[in-house]
Amino acid sequence: MPAAGKRSPKPDAKRGSDHSLTDRAYSKLEELIVTLQLAPGEIVSEAALSRQLRIGRTPIREALHRLARERLVNILPRRGITVSEINVGAQLRLLEVRREIERLVARSAARRASDAERRQFADLGKAFEAAARSDDATAFMRTDRAFNELCLVAAHNEYAASTMVLMNSLSRRFWFIHYRQAADMPLAAKLHAAVARAIAKGDARAASAASDKLLDYIEAFTRSTVDTA
């Protein structure tokens, strides 16, 4: 109990504020990298990013370390920070892992999602379909990000979640750089919608099968970029 007449300290509020700023910095930087506004190989600095985003250097630094763990940036001691390059071979190796984990996540989310989460999946399915009809790549990317995040929450498996987090942004960036030349965005959106609908219905088998169809397409798309590069 705090002493009478004294205001109790609120360390959690400070930590919460710092955490929200770091999340904001991460979200903004991740989108800049994924959408190639920060290009592969580009050299960046904490100071410049802090000025650009109007966020303090400490949250920027923490966000950059998180992005480094996700292999979107390389932090080189005494040499600076660079946006990571894109490599088709590495992307195919990533897909080997992603296929297995994503199947598990889709199946688990279908089994474990709450009623509220199922409604969100249904809404995301509609958003994917809308992006397919309008051929809106930006709407698709944002819906995909929300879908990935909801899948990880609804699956209730922290180990699968921590693995998928390391792959999602790399996958979205690879898509963004190549989709104009090699992708069928409306088809990709419809395949995502099928996974979302299956999860919303609680059909684990259908969610797993839809996830495999989606990864079949993504692997074919990735391989096709070798011919269109």
Report on the structure:
This protein is mainly alpha-helical and 229 residues long. It folds into two domains: 13-83, Arc Repressor Mutant, subunit A, CATH 1.10.10.10; 88-228, GntR ligand-binding domain-like (Four Helix Bundle (Hemerythrin (Met), subunit A), Up-down Bundle), CATH 1.20.120.530. Helix content is 77%, strand content 4%. The protein has nine helices and three strands, in the order αβααββαααααα. The protein has helices spanning 11-34, 46-53, 57-69, 88-112, 115-134, 137-155, 158-182, 185-201, 204-228, and strands spanning 43-44, 73-76, 80-83. The protein has a three-stranded antiparallel beta sheet with strand order 1-3-2. The longest helix is centred in the middle third of the chain and has 25 residues, at 88-112. It is globular and about 50 Å long. The model is unreliable at 1-16 (pLDDT under 50).
Give the topology.
Elements (H helix, E strand, L loop, with lengths): L10 H24 L8 E2 L1 H8 L3 H13 L3 E4 L3 E4 L4 H25 L2 H20 L2 H19 L2 H25 L2 H17 L2 H25 L1
